[in-house]
Amino acid sequence: MSASPIADFHVFPDAQGHFGRYGGSFVAETLVGPLQELAQAYDQARQDPAFQLAYDRDLAHYVGRPSPIYHAERLSDHVGGAQILLKREDLNHTGAHKINNTIGQALLAARMGKKRIIAETGAGQHGVASATVAARLGLECVVYMGATDIERQKINVYRMKLLGATVVPVTSGSATLKDALNEAMRDWVTNVQDTFYIIGTVAGPDPYPRMVRDFNAIVGREAREQMLAEYGRLPDAITACVGGGSNAIGLFHAFLNDREVEIVGAEAAGDGIHTGRHAASIAAGRPGVLHGNRTYVLCDDDGQIIETHSVSAGLDYPGVGPEHAFLADSGRARYVGITDEEALQAFHLLAHTEGILPALESSHALAQAMKLARGRPRDQIVLCNLSGRGDKDVHTIAAREGLVLTGVLLVLGLAACQPPEPPVLAPAAKAAAQPTAANDDVDPIARTPIDDPPAVTAVSSEDAPAVASVALDHAGEVLIGQHMSDLKGFGPWTAMGAAEAIGGSCEYYDGKGLPPGVSMMTDEDRVVRFDLGPGEDAKAPVDQPGPFGLRIGMTRAQAVAQFPGAPVSSPHAYDGDQGEYLTWQDPGSDLGIRLELFEGKDVPEMPVSRLDECFQRLRQQQRKALIPFITAGDPSLEATVPVMHALVEAGADVIELGVPFSDPMADGPTIQRSSERALARGAGTRYVLQAVAQFREQDAQTPVVLMGYLNPVEIHGYVAFANAAVAAGVDGVLLVDLPPEEAGEAQQAFDAAGLALVLLASPTTSEARADKLLALARGYLYYVSFAGVTGASERLDSDAASARLQALRGKASVPVVAGFGIKDAASAAAMARQADGVVVGSALVAVLAEAASVEDAAQRAAAFLTPLRQALDA
């Protein structure tokens, strides 16, 4: 992480919700449309004076803003050094900053006509704030809360129920905040038509990180104005606690362009980062994807999210808002770890010196404020965001100190009530706040430097002037006009100079008297040659990657789809062949790309993938594909391969093999529990690839498609994963939370390796978006038959699904298969009438879960699948 000369931090995020390399929208296809609808509604509301007036009125008359800045004089004297000021968010209605956000989102929900709101909560403050605004606006409210957090936040649970909310205990995973967020996501996927999800932190998919930040930014705007009005200056340093980071970004945002103000976030170091029992995502995490955005996450080397620990339920989260990740990498803010003990000492000290009980979350920031103050001149100012009050934490603190609270009675002698001695805090060295070199090395994704302006990236070479990157409306980012010497990753034909092709197969122009670009030749609707130089007639190696996402063997339609809106010329002759040009020009410059599309002749035969061959054979036989899904490693590690063979014997045409992931967003309870069992046995990504390789020892024909989530792939690295998967015998991969808008880098790596990236469509997919998905699809398109999670067969509307399938197949150049809700022969046959195949998952996984042995599992798999095969063939 290094400092960055970013001129204006307030221009972020970009139009796609990216803060540099972080942020974005990594969600299941079912949520893409609703998120776009939400973003549009939010942008319109921001421009509506009536909405802003209603929000401002509620902040003033319902929340009680502005919250004051309080000079903690006795605390400052005790600590010594700079003066400590507190931004008193604990005085808001409901007792924390959370209501700033819930008021805004609830007003937006009402504006959108939603009658039901859901929320996740850890410490309970966001849950209470959500229940509060729901009661005020007359909305149904459901709050998901980890069972562990319910136990340690009983007061807030009761408050939510008093306010009319339904509190749903979450027992999966670690039963804490991340699992509550997982469950809320699944609810939203299922009930997206009438439900508004009030996310409580600056995480999640776009537009949530910017929306939650904007609603909380009132904290920093007030603080900045109050500092100038009351003290005639800005603070020397500001600090706030960071879990997901909503209160922190609320304070930080107004000061980001004030370079003289030091910004420090306090993460939960738990028992100490060295112990592994902490929740310090920036200090000890790595870039990954969790809950819809790319950010720093705490995960193992296989990409599985690890359990976190903090005495504070609100900071017990294994990720952080993407804007915080961006600020850390840019150097504008630094993030330090505060241990449980340091936070508890700060709690007691503030109580003793100022008569204020801070929330345990806020106590982390307070401990850091004292570190910042000590050793500084007395005329300096440290401003700390006191994000919430600590009434909710009294039971937790008492229990930790050996006391038992029953109602309002203290069961122990008064002598036991004496808190620890006030802490002795030494000045914090700035260097200690930075992640270790080892953490810096954990960077599996090489992306745009953080200091680049949004949407335009400087690319330089020693032989040519810098040119700009142009983001196209397709998967990935094309470096139009990039110099040839920079393009060393596309294969053996990368050209190193004008009119000089290595391998005699492809050539890049560098602008030295020739227009930059690349041309492409097709034969029988297949790409067979990349050809640039005048008179060049060399063919590219078969099945090798090319520039700009082009690939030998891809269809002409797929190639053209990489450049939407590019004009295609009238046919022309070239060496006796009829063809046409497609040109794409960067508006306002001479940079562009030219594709030559020819019928061609004397072309080597294109290899056919197992997936293509399978569906071609089924089409010729007028049969439908039967695609069973099983979780790798369940019901046992030893059973996976025998079950795969048994399924093939029973009539499976393609096998979808689930890659277990700790935090799925679209899996129903059956598959989620199956993944948890498999992970407990050690069934990570490496095991899955080993199982496929073992399967290939006896079956070289049946296609295998891996189905899972992005973070394990991202942690292993796209190229490394793709190469390893293909080497093992994998034919395709379906990543539930990787929509095509975010898939550019992955798509390029997978195409290069010959690994099909299977895409999803759903009932919420618009017609225009469906056309785009069909153009980009590889292998087959998977249609999710209803908006919901896997296994909810009662939600299946066969007539509606059939109508949409018929429309998709009428436009598709790839097979379209249907899944979700298929549980038996009847439902499979009904869905197959309008699909090229059907996927059956949860019902089969449930049957396998009862197996007593490997042999029993194989027999159960065959017995389950056989009637489905018969129904499809009838």
Automatic annotation (TrEMBL):
Residues 64-388 form the Tryptophan synthase beta chain-like PALP domain. The keyword Magnesium does not apply. One of its GO terms (molecular function) is tryptophan synthase activity. Pathway: Amino-acid biosynthesis; L-tryptophan biosynthesis; L-tryptophan from chorismate: step 5/5. The keyword Lyase applies. InterPro entries: Aldolase_TIM (IPR013785), RibuloseP-bd_barrel (IPR011060), Trp_synth_b_CS (IPR006653), Trp_synth_beta (IPR006654), Trp_synth_beta/beta-like (IPR023026), Trp_synthase_alpha_AS (IPR018204), Trp_synthase_suA (IPR002028), TrpB-like_PALP (IPR001926). Its EC number is 4.2.1.20. One of its GO terms (cellular component) is cytoplasm. It is an enzyme of class 4 (lyase). Pfam families: PALP, Trp_syntA. CDD domains: Trp-synth_B, Tryptophan_synthase_alpha. SUPFAM superfamilies: Ribulose-phoshate binding barrel, Tryptophan synthase beta subunit-like PLP-dependent enzymes. Transmembrane segments: none annotated. Keywords: Amino-acid biosynthesis, Aromatic amino acid biosynthesis, Lyase, Pyridoxal phosphate, Tryptophan biosynthesis. It catalyses: (1S,2R)-1-C-(indol-3-yl)glycerol 3-phosphate + L-serine = D-glyceraldehyde 3-phosphate + L-tryptophan + H2O. Its cofactor is pyridoxal 5'-phosphate. In the N-terminal section; belongs to the TrpA family. In the C-terminal section; belongs to the TrpB family. The alpha subunit is responsible for the aldol cleavage of indoleglycerol phosphate to indole and glyceraldehyde 3-phosphate. This is Tryptophan synthase. It comes from Knufia peltigerae.
